[in-house]
UniProtKB/TrEMBL annotation:
TPR repeats: 193-226
PROSITE patterns linked to this entry: TPR
Location of region: Disordered: 37-56
Residues of the Surface lipoprotein assembly modifier N-terminal TPR repeats region domain: 166-250
UniProt xrefs under InterPro entries: TPR-like_helical_dom_sf, TPR_rpt, TPR_Slam
Annotated organism of origin: Cyclobacterium plantarum
Protein name: Tetratricopeptide repeat protein
Keywords, comma-separated and alphabetical: TPR repeat
Origin organism lineage: Bacteria, Pseudomonadati, Bacteroidota, Cytophagia, Cytophagales
Pfam families: TPR_Slam
């Protein structure tokens, strides 16, 4: 199955774009030659509508302008945080996740601490998932690693955050670093939901569908409510020429979800069986 076909069929799912842009790596061969790339760091604060589902009306912009006027030069840390947090929430509501992350990072710098680092890092990670520009994607990935890395230094048991950091490396110039991190997570927690899902996605992207089947089978056995994992299992079975099992898997999934994108994908594959 061509990568472009995967993107078309799975349009609307959370990791569709990530699947499309991941480098072609063989996840079971650490000596595979990897692509080179990357970019510099910089601020991702902007008022342009360049992020997923972004929508800021004139009233939003006026609110932001007023809050920024109050925030700038505010000597009291508590008040600064209130203004910055309010601005970030307006940007979040308008789909400007990268700009929201920038203001959460201002809070994390003004008042360092696990909660603020995690909020900034998670928001940068969300923006990273929607970024369509390679240089900006790399900046967002770097910011994600910076803030979530601070949390991991204090809470190394946070495998959920380690998984996010791993995925920022997978789409970088050093994807094997991310894959190695995912393997480490699975060594520590063999049933880890996010790591199994992402390793399955990576196996699909590199055309290793039988390996993907193994990952998704283990995922859905331990996390039966993971609907995306159920769908990707059906796709991987189809692509590995296990048509009867694929049909059974996809048909059983039809009664478990009302997501129109997943249902459309199911029908697409069933029509091809």
């Amino acid at each position: 199955m061509k990568r472009s076909q995967i993107v078309f069929v799975l349009a609307g799912l959370l990791l569709t774009y990530l699947l499309y842009r991941l480098p072609m790596v063989v996840v079971d061969n650490e000596e595979q030659q990897l692509a080179e790339g990357g970019g510099g760091l910089g601020s991702d604060f902007s008022t342009d509508g360049d992020t997923h589902n972004s929508s800021l009306d004139q009233r939003d912009l006026e609110v932001i302008e007023n809050l920024m006027a109050e925030m700038e030069g505010e000597p009291d840390d508590k008040n600064f945080v209130i203004f910055a947090d309010s601005i970030a929430k307006v940007y979040e509501a308008g789909g400007k996740i990268d700009s929201a992350a920038y203001f959460y990072s201002l809070i994390a710098e003004k008042v360092p601490g696990i909660e603020n680092w995690e909020k900034a890092g998670n928001t940068y990670y969300e923006a990273f998932g929607f970024s369509m520009d390679d240089a900006k994607t790399e900046r967002l990935a770097e910011n994600t690693r910076e803030y979530l890395g601070k949390v991991l230094e204090s809470q190394p048991e946070r495998l959920d955050l380690k998984t996010k950091i791993a995925m920022t490396y997978v789409s970088s110039s050093n994807p094997m670093q991310g894959i190695t991190m995912l393997r480490e997570i699975l060594e520590e927690d063999p049933d880890n939901e996010e790591a199994l899902f992402n390793m399955g996605i990576l196996s699909m992207q590199s055309g290793q569908y039988k390996r993907a089947v193994e990952r998704f089978e283990k995922l859905v056995a331990n996390h039966p409510n993971n609907i995306q994992g159920q769908f990707y299992l059906g796709v991987s079975l189809f692509e590995s020429n296990q048509k009867d099992r694929a049909r059974e898997q996809l048909q059983s999934l039809k009664g478990k979800t009302d997501d129109p994108q997943i249902l459309s994908g199911i029908e697409n594959y069933l029509d091809r069986l």
